[in-house]
Design goal:
single chain, 587 residues, alpha+beta, Heat Shock Protein 90, Ribosomal Protein S5, domain 2, formyl-coa transferase, domain 3, 5-stranded mixed sheet, 37% helix
Length: 587
């Protein structure tokens, strides 16, 4: 069969398959165009999840008739003034969005440039376009997309329900709105139902505006239980908000990364967030974070994905280190703080019919494994006798101990309410933090293998492990290259008796390839430390003197991450006096 040139309409439909895989992708591209046009108001309408109609109206710069003609041709753009793909400042730059959408739908564009006397419209149906014609429209642009994928009916079979497609489109708008607090957004669905309405911030570039926008998108709960992030390294700046460990989700859906104003989905974020929360959250729980990375455009490649959904950093390790370090420092700086949702859940538990819900929340955390006797002996070395307590001080953050309940909970009085402390969970965190400090100071004890174990791998995997040998040695694993496609393990962490060395090394190699981070070894060492801390801490049933109870409270106030145990469970519940009075009908 001879080689031939494909017809332009078919080329556009192939491009549409790469760029516009579902209604949400079309919404994203059209809203990005409106943002690039310097719009301050963007209205989106969706019918049948976007399949029947997608309408995007903005008050941006608008287009002339000639520009309308070019806008529906492939690879025509106003967003690369110097034709430099390493200096991309706009969200859209490929010039593929409008022609790709027009190749698989019935599309109408109406636009009027700022200061222009007339509006013009152009239509594109299955790739066939009309000539620009006069129309009535205010300054800005309107794009109506009818019957998406009617020209490629096979694609319709892969769409989900209208409701699911609508939610995906709404999520695309939310992510863009997160990065643009200075723009007002409205999204309506079937029967003109308002799905999203966001007012523009008066000070678009301020931290207050960003917090207000994030609160509107992620909820007041997140805004009240988050920590500010502001850090710099190597020309990159990281800002944003991260949720306290006691505010978490079952899936990592609410983790957002914006790079130079561009929302992206990046595995770098997932791995970095996981590393930062590693010892304050159970492995199957995920925090809520919204992070904004700003850096030199020539250090960030945004031209690596047809839909511009991914970016690539020239120095990924630098950015990852910035994220992990900034998040860990912020979490440590939050001290004993726990999310207010803990208190809200406690109040709800006093109301009829909520006990089962509270029990189900508790069951989300797996019980820690039981340690061997020798590990318990090791953990006992980290216990300290309670320090003499200062005089009772209700004005202290966690107040003054007043009673011990059921041998398991400490009741403390604060200046504005009460605090109920889970003595075992609290002491578990204190012991665990001491263990971490000891490991940082002395390192992980190693045990030499009587017979060094050779592990065969792919060449690239062996090279990755060899390159990170010094880092792995800090956690007690000594490896060396052993010819092509193999490493030899000479020492393992003494904390991990009976270790399957081959399986661990292969897991580490896979994680280094996927996340640029070896979690398995760190998690195994830290899991043992967490288990030791759990089983060597003050247990439920242990009677404590008033001095011991107050000493525990003061140590919690001085210890990082003491608002939650190693599994992400809260260590205390704070109830304001006003809330307690409402429970008794006094207010």
């Amino acid at each position: 069969m001879s080689i031939r040139r494909l017809p332009p309409v078919l080329v556009n439909r192939i491009a549409a398959g790469e760029v516009i895989e579902r209604p949400a992708a079309a919404v994203k591209e059209l809203v990005e165009n409106a943002i690039d046009a310097a719009a301050t108001r963007i209205d989106v309408a969706l019918k049948q999840g976007g399949q029947a109609l997608i309408s995007v109206v903005d008050n941006g710069g608008g287009m002339t008739p000639d520009e309308l003609n070019l806008a529906v041709e492939r690879h025509c753009t106003s967003k690369l003034p110097e034709d430099d793909l390493l200096r991309i400042a706009a969200l859209g730059f490929r010039g593929e969005a409008l022609p790709s959408i027009g190749a698989v739908s019935r599309m109408r564009l109406v636009s009027r440039p700022r200061g222009g006397g007339n509006a013009w419209e152009i239509t594109v149906e299955a790739g066939n376009r009309s000539a620009p014609a006069p129309a009535a429209h205010p300054e800005g642009t309107r794009v109506d997309v009818h019957d998406l994928f009617f020209a490629t009916p096979a694609r319709l079979k892969f769409l989900k329900t209208p409701r699911t497609e609508r939610e995906l489109a709404l999520d695309a708008v939310r992510r863009l709105a997160m990065a643009c607090p200075g723009i007002s957004f409205t999204v309506t669905g079937d029967e003109e139902r308002v799905l999203l309405r966001l007012a523009a911030a008066a000070e678009a570039g301020g931290a207050r505006a960003r917090r207000a926008r994030l609160a509107a998108l992620l909820g007041r709960e997140f805004a009240e239980n988050s920590v500010e992030i502001d850090a710099e390294r190597g020309g990159f700046r990281l800002t944003g908000l991260i949720g306290l460990p006691t505010l978490h989700r079952a899936v990592p859906r609410d983790q957002y990364l914006v790079v130079n104003g561009r929302p992206v989905r990046d595995k770098l974020l997932v791995g970095a967030v996981r590393a930062a929360y590693q010892d304050v959250l159970a492995r199957d729980r995920h925090p809520i974070v919204a992070l904004f990375v700003d850096g030199p455009t020539d250090e960030i490649d945004v031209n690596v994905h047809p839909a511009k959904a991914e970016v690539r950093f020239r120095d990924a390790a630098l950015v990852r280190g910035l994220i992990v370090g900034a998040l860990r420092n912020a979490l440590a700086g939050s001290g004993h703080r726990a999310s207010s949702t803990v208190g809200s859940a406690a109040l709800a538990a006093f109301r009829p019919g909520t006990g089962a819900a509270g029990q189900s929340r508790r069951s989300a955390f797996p019980p820690p494994p039981a340690p061997s006797l020798d590990l318990v002996e090791t953990g006992n070395n980290f216990l300290r006798p309670a320090e003499p307590a200062p005089p009772p001080a209700p004005q202290a953050p966690l107040g003054a101990a007043r009673a011990q309940l059921h041998g398991a909970y400490i009741l403390a009085e604060t200046a504005t309410g009460i605090v109920l402390v889970d003595q075992h969970a609290a002491h578990e965190r204190l012991v665990y933090e001491r263990m971490k400090q000891a490991l940082a100071a002395r390192g992980v004890a190693r045990q030499a293998l009587l017979l060094p174990e050779v592990v065969e791998l792919e060449d690239s995997a062996a090279a990755r492990l060899a390159a990170r040998a010094a880092e792995l040695a800090e956690f007690g694993l000594q490896i060396e290259p052993f010819g092509p496609g193999a490493v030899v393990v000479r020492e393992v962490p003494a904390l991990l008796p009976g270790l399957d060395v081959g399986a661990l090394v292969r897991d580490l190699a896979d994680e280094l390839a996927e996340w640029d981070e070896g979690f398995s070894l760190k998690e195994r060492v830290e899991t043992v430390c967490g288990t030791l801390a759990c089983h060597t801490s003050v247990r439920a049933g242990n009677r404590l003197s008033p001095a011991e109870m107050d000493a525990l409270l003061r140590q919690m106030e001085a210890t990082p991450n003491s608002g939650q145990c190693n599994h992400g469970r809260p260590t205390y519940v704070a109830l304001e006096l006003a809330d307690i009075e409402r429970l008794f009908g006094r207010k």
